[in-house]
Amino acid sequence: MENRISFSLDEADKQEILAALTVLNTKLLPKLIELAQGEARELPVMGDKSYGFVLKALEYAKQYPEFAALIDVAEFEKDVNAVGLLREIYIPLSQLTKKVQDTMTLAGSEAYVSGLTCYGSSKEGVKRKLPNAILIAEELGKRFPGRARVKKDE
Length: 154
What we know:
Structural class: mainly alpha
């Protein structure tokens, strides 16, 4: 298998990244909410195209209050400002999160394939009666319960 990733961080960089996450959790997390399971599906969704519509509606609500009598314009403006601010955070954060996930997936895949190869080699070692092969094959084989166990007497 081709090795497509060789990722590492030195300890200083790791600590800086963890400190930045601590800042995010300290400053941002207390201001965020978590919707109950299924609750998001029940809400009208404001996507990218709707964002411009909402900005224009806010302008009109402020300019022509007679058309905004049924809403709290100040709260409307706070919600719009919140979306704008959160978009500034969310877009780069989601791009970063996707790349972290992709990197973790690729590194995990390569590591798993290497682990499977090691396990396969240990099973082959059992057939050849190599020292420690049974120990290794049995220990690694615990990952696959219900499958045929290592045959010691082949």
